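Why do we care about 3D structure at all? Because function follows from shape, and shape follows, mostly, from sequence. That is the central idea of this module. The next example makes it concrete: a single protein chain, its amino acid sequence, and then its structure expressed as tokens.
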Amino acid sequence: MTTARRRISVNLPWNPDFVDTFIARARLADEIGIDTISVLEGYGHDAFTGMALLAYETKNARIASSIVNVFSRTPATLAQSFGTVDQLSGGRVIIGLGASAPGAIERFHGVPFERPFARIREAVELIRLYWSRERFTYDGPTIHVERALVSGMIPGQPTARIHLATLNPTSVKMTAEIADGWMPTWIPNDRVAESVQQVKQWSLDAGRSADAVEVRSPGSATVVLDSDKQAEIDRGFAQGLAFFAVRNGPGYFHQFERQGFAEQVAAMREAWQSGGVGAATEIAMEIASRFSRRGSLEECAAHLDEQTSHGVDLHQVTVDTDDDQRWADALAELVG
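And the structure:
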């Protein structure tokens, strides 16, 4: 295993019922040199409460959202929330934003899923304006602010660090032009290098440096400490792939098509309609090995190094164990 230090991100599931585990793992991650600790936000608990706890309980790791959508909160509210956590953490917040998908936005938040690219761009521009704590006027495609009131929060970072979760070429190009980081997803391992190089070229075309955008790995490498669980974990991943391809909105469906899996996705959709998730999962199993990695510590380490050679800056890692110390020990070995 290489001795080079790897930049690793972990997601900590946030649930108040398990706050002790959440904090314990956050402290361990901070101690062993984990680069970024992320909090998801979907239909359950909000990200910002968990992020605030992380900001208070850690000293070094960056605190990120993965991801917060740009529809259910105004850009001013996003700036307030992220800025407050950044102030609490001493300037360690990474703002992870995305459009999410029609299902989440319309069927949970009750907001029309309209003009997602415009909403993302406006959110990025306005968050940075509010973050500056200066008065401004903004006239965008969906939002107008006249002589904005100056925010009372005082972030730790002079400028907001914003990472975008984007899929199609138009939105990824926008990411290369305006964002500090890119959070891709569902890109097969053998196409990661090509995708990273395209982002670098778009950054150069926009007058930025080739390395202006930090690239996160498009999937999470999962360390399987108990080999008897390998088949179960592989199947769980395939089931998630099938759900995203078939049930999570047209954006993900088209992403798999762009990556060369149109035939398999069409078969998954037909199988889901006739036989449910189990039937679709069987087809997803045929391509699941093309995405990310699930295996031993050594196999995952090799995968991370290969991804680094392809231009990935930050690696998502999951360790399959309920034991906090085994979790930390495996991560520490991967960090190097």
